[in-house]
Amino acid sequence: MSDETIRLATVGRILRRRWRLLAVLTLVGALVGYGASVVLFPPRYTASASVLLPGQWEERELLTQAQVATSSSVVDRAAAELGWKDVDATELKDKVGAKATDGNIIKISGTAESPERAQELSDRVAQEFVSFSARLTGGSTDDGTETGPEALRKKVEATNRRISELADSADPGRTVEGVQARTSLEKLRASLEEAMKKLDQAETVSGKAGMVVMGKSPKPTGEAPPTRTQLMAGGALLFLVSAVIGHLAAARTNRRLRTEPEIAAALRSELLGTVDVPDEGRAHRPDGPRAMVRHFLGLDTRWDTPAPQRSADEAGRRIRYRRVCTRLRNKMPAARRLLVVVPEGDEVAHRAAGQLVAESASDPSVNAANRGYPALRVVEVPVSRPVVPDSGAESGALVVLSAGNWTAAELAGIAEACADGGHEIVGVVVAGAVRAREDRPADQPPEKATLALAVRGNATGGPA
């Protein structure tokens, strides 16, 4: 097919002609999204707790702390404190997340099937994270006892006082041993002072680990994505886009012949003309539930065929049929009977064949010697396994069909069936649907009458 299938006009044609089918598929997609939200993605809620890290922190240090907050050491302790029987520590780790934000804040999020559980999870993980960080830096959050750097500082101060007492008690400058003792004590005092300075610096750095939970996490008021509404909208959009892409792909792979020269070449004959058939639109009501469903969804009509053009009038359409009959008479002046072959299921071609039968029967030159139109008999041929009646009184076969419905292989099968029946294809007539006007000449038989005439000729097998 041509590049027309990828144009926006083609997508618009699909939306106009298959809007009912697309609407049904969109509804089905929304229902599938709803089912997925119930079975695969039940409603989930996410709560976030904030932990403040005092001091100055580099970006990589904050990222490290975020990883610590979701580590197994923290999550396992939180799972033990929560005591949820339906969720173990491994599943809980997948429901906890942490990220560093501006202002030295670590946001710890917890996801659960209810707002209360989500809030409880995020708060517990935040508390366990703070406790775990305090234990890493040597701090304590349990009681008020002095441990770690503070106790060491007091011991150093007591040692300094003892050194001063020993220095005062030593004999200042009287003996060599006294001088050496005082020198050693002063060196020890200097070493202790230097150690205390380093301890103070280390304490300042470690003071950054004094993390604080910034209050209780707010209870979530809405579902975490993907929500049920998002799943339904995504399913509807997915089905709609898939349907449009499917139509475009089918049109790209379509091998049905659309032009008159291609059709004539496939039948190995020449084109005698094109005729117009008034489009009846929705006049015919289908029989059976399946046909009614196809009719409702628009599947009984092709979407990729051009919209029917408005024809001139009834007289103009009759002129086309007369010209075809005249070409048949000029092409085969001695032929008195011809077989009109119509593919089965081609309603437009069947109605065109009936109109040709009516025109050939109303030949104004029927009394002229050997100059009348050939008598036509219509037969429908199944395209899947075409069989044409054997040659009898007919002098050839005229193939009438509509464009855009048959492939080259199917038309070649019809041509071979005509050859097997002893009929030479004398020409091809292509029928097209048009929008007819309401006016009708009084001398023209109604369309239904011509269709009935064609059906009677096909059923009886006799000349029309």
TrEMBL record:
Residues annotated as transmembrane: 21-41
Localization per Swiss-Prot or TrEMBL: Cell membrane
Domain Polysaccharide chain length determinant N-terminal: 6-74
Keywords, alphabetical: Cell membrane, Membrane, Transmembrane, Transmembrane helix
Entry GO terms, CC: plasma membrane
Membrane topology value: Multi-pass membrane protein
InterPro entries: Bact_polysacc_biosynth/exp, LPS_length_determ_N
One Pfam family this sequence matches: Wzz
Protein family per UniProt: Belongs to the CpsC/CapA family.
Name recorded for this polypeptide: Polysaccharide biosynthesis protein
Record lineage: Bacteria, Bacillati, Actinomycetota, Actinomycetes, Kitasatosporales
